[in-house]
Specification:
By secondary structure, the protein is an alpha/beta fold. It is built from 13 helices and eleven strands. The protein folds into three domains: 167 residues, Rossmann fold (3-Layer(aba) Sandwich), CATH 3.40.50.300; 59 residues, no CATH class; 66 residues. The protein binds adenosine-5'-triphosphate and magnesium ion.
Length: 353
């Protein structure tokens, strides 16, 4: 079983005229991972997403999508990109038509396609826009319709380019909640943003692209948010400010909120709040009284790290292979393959809660 949605090795991209947009990017994205691509204006985030959708071909380096080199039509159909500029995405006469287009293309009958479009409009709170022209909507409304076109085809991979920009606060929260639900359902989600507030909620892992178009950092989102030097170098925070909110506000994936201030604690610079410090010892779970609640959190935690672990097993398999220890390499590869099965079992357990 192939474990990675995308594997990029030494990817560089230059636009016509020689404008550099990406420089030597190495990136492996396991299925089911939620990844944030952070970077300042012009760093290359959108270019990276275009490459992951197969819209642009790298100038150099190698890319594998779903384990193979070619972007076949069937692979493309499994990936949906929500463009930074929604106008680039919308073309139908009405919002309803726009949301029925994908399902009809996928062979759904008219009635089913309409039903799916209506469900999505309800989910996104845009039912009153059904008969409006997508071209006459506000920026935020357009963005929701654009996201709806992705949801309507139920892709495996979502590429979200600045999904929260231009949305009002309530719509931003709704979008973050929706991304969290997509994560829980096992979708692979890659979000380009410079909105540091949403990162912990929408992603387990983040990369930072610098102004030199190289990857400056790659790691768990909570760790990346603490890398003040990197964020400063990437022009994501100001010299005189530090990123504190990640430490004083924890919005869990299950509606549990940890506010340091609520508990009368002062946020300590560079330190996570108490519950987060205790995360590894189970402190984070202390308010979850019932078995279902605790287990739900644990299952999500196991799932999130399962993908990272599988990646590490494969890396070690390669190292073992390089040292001529084929048997060990084969066993490690087997462990990585079995991790895919674990993923299924975690989800099965979740569905039985
Ligand atoms: N069509 C194009 N032709 C030439 N250069 C381009 C083109 N599109 C983007 N670039 C350049 O490539 C680099 C990366 O652009 P990209 O749009 O990927 O950045 P970004 O990180 O998405 O920025 P933003 O936060 O502003 O959306 C920038 O220097 C940009 O000027
Ligand atoms: Mg962009």
């Amino acid at each position: 079983m192939n474990f990675f949605a995308f594997e990029l090795e030494g990817i560089s991209f230059e636009y016509q005229g020689g404008q550099k947009a990406l420089d030597s990017v190495d990136l492996a994205i396991p299925f089911g991972e939620s990844l944030t691509v952070l970077g300042t204006n012009g760093s290359g985030k959108s270019t990276l997403l275009y490459i992951l959708q197969g819209l642009l071909t790298p100038s150099s380096g190698a890319i594998k999508v779903f384990g193979g080199k070619a972007f076949t039509p069937s692979k493309r159909a499994r990936i949906c990109m929500m463009f930074q500029n929604s106008q680039a995405q919308l073309f139908s006469l009405t919002v309803l038509d726009e949301l029925m287009f994908g399902p009809l293309q996928h062979g759904l009958a008219e009635q089913e396609a309409r039903g799916r479009a209506e469900d999505i409009m309800e989910l996104l709170g845009i039912s009153p826009l059904a008969n409006r022209s997508p071209w006459q909507l506000s920026g935020g409304e357009m963005k929701k319709v654009a996201l709806g076109t992705c949801l309507s085809t139920n892709p495996d991979v979502y590429l979200l380019d600045e999904p929260t920009s231009g949305l009002d606060p309530r719509s931003q929260v709704a979008l973050v909640d929706l991304v969290m639900k997509l994560r829980e359902s096992g979708k692979t989600i890659i979000t380009a943003t410079h909105d540091l507030h949403i990162i912990e909620d929408i992603s387990g892992r983040s990369i930072v692209i610098g102004e030199d178009h190289k990857v400056l950092a790659d790691g768990p989102s909570i760790e990346v948010l603490k890398m003040n030097d990197v964020l400063l170098k990437a022009n994501l925070i100001h010299e005189h400010s530090h990123w504190h909110e990640g430490y004083t506000h924890k919005h869990s994936h299950f509606g549990v909120h940890e506010h340091a201030a609520d508990k009368g604690e002062a946020g300590i610079e560079g330190q996570p709040p108490e519950a987060e410090q205790k995360f590894g010892k189970g402190g984070f779970y202390q308010n979850m009284g019932d078995l279902g609640g605790k287990l739900k959190i644990l299952l999500e935690h196991w799932q999130e790290h399962n993908a990272e672990h599988a990646k590490t097993y494969l890396e070690w398999a390669e190292k073992a292979q390089a040292e001529g220890r084929s048997e060990l390499a084969a066993t490690l590869r087997e462990i990585a393959r079995e991790s895919g099965r674990l993923e299924e079992l975690f989800r099965k357990a979740e569905s039985q809660l």
